[in-house]
Structures are given as C-alpha cells and as structure tokens.
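Q: I'm writing a short methods note and want an example of a predicted protein-small molecule complex. Could you take the sequence and the SMILES for zinc ion and return the bound structure as tokens? Please keep the output block clean; save any remarks for afterwards.
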Amino acid sequence: MSEKLVRARTALLDSEPGGSEVRPIEVVTAAVIEPRARGVRCPRCDEPFELVEHTAHAGESGRLRRARLKCRSCGTERSLWFRLSAPS
Ligand SMILES: [Zn+2]
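A: Understood, no commentary inside the block.
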C-alpha cells in the first residue's frame, strides 16, 4: 500500500468519532469500549487493531477513556477516545 493512501486513511480515522480527544465516542458503559476498539482497522494493513489497554483520562469535556490500539502486523499505534455519559 502506498504511503499516500496510508496517510489518507489515517486522516480519515482521525476525523471520525473517537479519532481524537475533542471528538470522543459517547458511551454509557465502559463495557462497549473493547468491541468498538476491535472494529477499527489498521490504515496500513487493513487488519483489526489489538486493544492494548484503556485508561481513564480526565479531560476538559468530562470523563474520557482512552483506548490504546496496536496493529499486530505493523506495530502502528493509535488512540481511540470515548466519553462516559450517565444514562438518562
Ligand atoms: Zn498495521
């Protein structure tokens, strides 16, 4: 895969929900973090990422969770961001 395509795919992931701290995925329970994280594919290999860990993160916009993802094939790492919102 060309570097140009990898960069384009990476930029797409960055702009999607969860791709950055300012655009977290809203969830009501941390239990859905793992399945959501496993749905993200490496922009370089098109393989599902492995979830390394997810950690609590105090952000300006509330209780954030940062999932650290790593590609088993190429070692690319990404973060996927979530915000825990209380069920209404
Ligand atoms: Zn990869």
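A: Remarks, as requested: The first strand starts at residue 25 and ends at 27. Residues 42, 44-45, 47, 71, 73-74, 76 surround zinc ion (CB under 6 Å).
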